[in-house]
């Protein structure tokens, strides 16, 4: 679990940081006023990252920075002023970055920097470089930014690793490598990994005219000339990953239902089509429809109905956390369950139906119970429309048999299993 330590002795600044952190950081945060408090917290807690003031009343010579770094906590420094000596001193100490406290925007930048670094944790990066020293230096810098780092000593090895490990999101590749150079590697990688899926930063110490433009035209997101400053490396990597993350956020936003936050019908259909092509005969699709939902809208208004839908979405998310859950219509939802046996799938959804009926929903001060009807079909047809047709037929049967029921369709024989009610 991620946890952040923020050390700041100014009450005003700490209040600002608390406010900004509550808006932008969804992690546990401990605040400290002094070196003494920091020591006590570090003794009993493990921190993913620290944001600390350079000087404190009881630590005027960056002792708190030395403390967090000695505990192997990646550290971002807050400072009210900076000169070349102090800057160099901090970088030599091994801080991730520093932020100058000169206005409110700098505090927002610091919190967003922390947020970006936390997002890097668990993210995989690959360094492709034939120089062991270069790889070691870049590995150290990337690990400070919380990346999980892999290494390749030439382009061919890097290409093999990228094909085997789809979770690698950042590639740093040198130009001059044996067997396959950086240009050839980038071109080969872009045949199966797009710019929205993998960020690439080209590297070279050759100084050849037009090298940066060539790298970017071949598919790199950015380019760095060796030798580079630590700060420049940090900024380029962070900026490149921020662009990748923004694209991911936009895509996720486009795939989500605006009200419930579940996946929308378009994404659900796209994913189901892909899964059916690769073979998901071991799974069952369930369509769930709220019973008498129009009466809720008529009695409590559409805002009341929206409130019920968001509560239903949360109940589905909690109950089927490992499944593809989607809102596919007004009050209709879909769940793809990894269960081959239709009877077992039916039993699972019948348990959910009972849980659903017992759940107390709320609209403002009003409390009410709702029920749901469920139709289930095995994913044993090549197209989504066929699977949906059988699940829809089972759902219709559940409604016809008095609602608040779960019905499974034996799709191959086009029969309906005996429905299960309370």
TrEMBL record:
Keywords, alphabetical: Nucleotidyltransferase, Phosphoprotein, Transferase
Pfam families referenced in this protein's UniProt entry, alphabetically: GGDEF, Response_reg
Enzyme Commission designation: 2.7.7.65
Boundaries of every GGDEF domain copy: 281-411
GO MF annotation: an example: diguanylate cyclase activity
This protein's record includes keyword Glycoprotein: no
Protein name: diguanylate cyclase
Organism: Pseudoalteromonas obscura
């Amino acid at each position: 679990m991620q946890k952040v330590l923020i050390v700041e002795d100014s009450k005003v600044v700490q209040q600002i940081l608390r406010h900004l952190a509550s808006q932008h950081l969804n992690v546990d945060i401990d605040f400290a006023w002094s070196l003494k408090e920091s020591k006590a917290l570090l003794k009993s807690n493990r921190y993913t990252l620290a944001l600390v003031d350079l000087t404190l009343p009881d630590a005027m010579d960056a002792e708190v920075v030395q403390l967090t770094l000695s505990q192997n906590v990646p550290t971002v420094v807050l400072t009210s002023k900076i000169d070349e000596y102090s800057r160099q001193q901090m970088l030599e100490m091994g801080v991730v970055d520093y932020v100058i406290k000169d206005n409110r925007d700098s505090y927002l930048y610091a919190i967003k920097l922390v947020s970006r670094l936390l997002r890097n944790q668990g993210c995989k990066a690959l360094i492709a470089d034939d120089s062991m020293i270069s790889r070691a230096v870049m590995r150290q810098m990337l690990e400070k930014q919380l990346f999980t780092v892999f290494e390749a000593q030439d382009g061919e090895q890097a290409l093999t690793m990228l094909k085997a490990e789809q979770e690698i999101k950042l590639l740093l590749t040198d130009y001059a490598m044996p067997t396959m150079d950086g240009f050839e590697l980038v071109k080969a990688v872009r045949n199966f990994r797009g710019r929205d899926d993998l960020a690439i930063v080209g590297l070279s110490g050759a100084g050849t005219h037009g090298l940066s433009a060539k790298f970017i035209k071949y598919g790199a997101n950015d380019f760095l000339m060796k030798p580079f400053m630590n700060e420049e490396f940090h900024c380029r990597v962070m900026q490149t990953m921020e662009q990748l993350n923004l694209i991911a956020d936009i895509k996720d936003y486009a795939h989500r239902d605006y009200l419930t936050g579940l996946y929308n019908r378009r994404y659900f259909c796209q994913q189901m089509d892909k899964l059916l092509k690769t073979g998901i005969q071991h799974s069952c699709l369930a369509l769930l429809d709220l019973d008498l939902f129009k009466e809720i809208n008529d009695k409590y208004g559409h805002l009341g109905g929206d409130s019920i839908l968001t509560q239903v979405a949360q109940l589905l998310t909690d109950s089927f956390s490992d499944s593809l859950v989607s809102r596919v219509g007004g009050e209709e939802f879909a769940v793809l369950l990894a269960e081959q046996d239709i009877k077992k799938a039916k039993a699972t959804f019948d348990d959910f139906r009972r849980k659903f009926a017992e759940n107390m929903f709320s609209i403002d001060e009003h409390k009410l119970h709702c029920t749901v009807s469920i139709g289930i079909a095995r994913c044993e047809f090549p197209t989504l429309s066929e699977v949906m047709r059988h699940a829809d037929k089972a759902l219709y049967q559940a409604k016809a048999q008095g609602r608040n029921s779960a019905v499974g369709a034996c799709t191959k024989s086009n029969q309906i299993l005996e429905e299960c009610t309370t």
